[in-house]
Design a protein that fits this description.
Bound molecules: adenosine-5'-triphosphate
CATH superfamily of one domain: P-loop containing nucleotide triphosphate hydrolases
Order of helices and strands: EEEHEEHEHHHHEHEEEHHEE
Organism: Paenibacillus zeisoli
Pfam family, one: ABC_tran
Protein name: ABC transporter ATP-binding protein
Strand order of the largest sheet: 6-7-8-3-9-10
GO molecular function: ATP binding; ATP hydrolysis activity
Number of strands: 12
Keywords: ATP-binding, Nucleotide-binding
CATH class of one domain: Alpha Beta
């Protein structure tokens, strides 16, 4: 498999509206990408498409080397983790943190078996890796937003995905929790068995240096795509936001202000 994601001229029309238009995008093996766009730019639609929940009106999609239309999408989904603050927040309540993490193994294959001691060991390891092992024994609903995000990432990793989508993962987090989560994501990316990461965000400064490539999407079209350092610069971002902005690079992250 050469490409992790390949979209060729992908469009999606709905209710007389063009939601995605002529999207060409290739994620090659070994790359971690950020996806940046304003509200309503088409990010969620794109993610729904990658996961096969919606079908392109035009164009071709391959994910993990499997071409849509020729592959059993439910099978493919087992290899894709999708952590979304808005979607998954509502799903769990009383469950203990470690049970929630362990359940990721079964969620991805859509059946429930009694988890083995080995499964719990793996869950513990993942919680340690994400620096949230102190949450064992706590019920999910009593955890903070930042802690919940880490548990949901650990849960997604339990299914050993090859592609992990982090969808507005730092939404609603305070400064400390956000930086803590970003540190964990950076560490995760350095593990030998790390999945390919796709980090979806509204904020340039959340794009860590591990995301060497960035896709800018605006009004359903690819505005720019390429090396993060080249994409996140004054001229291109001012045009992207249709407002003069200044980018300050600090510790390899792009901090934005109005000019
Ligand atoms: N099923 C649908 N039918 C009609 N229009 C839709 C549908 N789904 C999305 N849209 C429209 O397509 C556009 C893109 O929506 P999408 O949710 O993909 O944006 P987004 O980038 O994820 O936004 P946000 O950052 O606010 O979550 C919006 O204008 C939205 O109203």
């Amino acid at each position: 498999m050469e490409h992790i994601i390949e979209m060729k001229n992908v469009s999606w029309f709905r209710e007389g509206k063009t939601v995605l238009k002529g999207v060409n995008w290739t994620v090659s093996k070994g790359e971690n990408w950020a996806l940046l766009g304003l509200n309503g730019s088409g990010k969620t639609t794109l993610l729904n498409m990658l996961n096969g929940y919606i079908w392109p009106t035009q164009g071709e999609i391959s994910v993990l080397g499997e071409k849509f239309g020729e592959v059993d999408i439910r099978h493919l989904r087992r290899s894709i983790g999708w952590v979304s603050s808005s979607l998954q927040e509502k799903l769990y309540g009383n469950e203990k943190a470690e049970d929630l993490v362990v359940s990721g193994k079964f969620a991805s294959i859509g059946l429930y078996e009694k988890p083995s001691a080995e499964d719990y060991n793996r869950a513990k390891q993942l919680m340690e890796q994400l620096r949230c092992s102190h949450l064992a024994g706590r019920s999910y609903q009593t955890c903070s937003q930042g802690e919940k995000q880490k548990l949901l990432i650990a849960r997604a990793l339990m299914g050993s995905p090859k592609l992990l989508i982090l969808d507005e993962a730092a939404n609603g987090l305070d400064f400390i929790s956000k930086e803590g989560l970003l540190d964990s994501i950076e560490e995760l990316s350095k593990q030998p068995d790390a999945p390919h990461l796709l980090y979806v965000t509204h904020h340039t400064e959340e794009i860590l240096p591990i995301f060497s490539k960035t896709l800018l999407i605006r009004r359903g079209e690819v505005f720019a795509s390429g090396y993060t350092k080249e994409v996140l610069e004054n001229e291109s971002l001012s045009e992207f936001f249709e407002m003069p902005v200044h980018v300050l690079w600090n510790q390899d992250r792009a901090w934005l202000s109005k000019k």
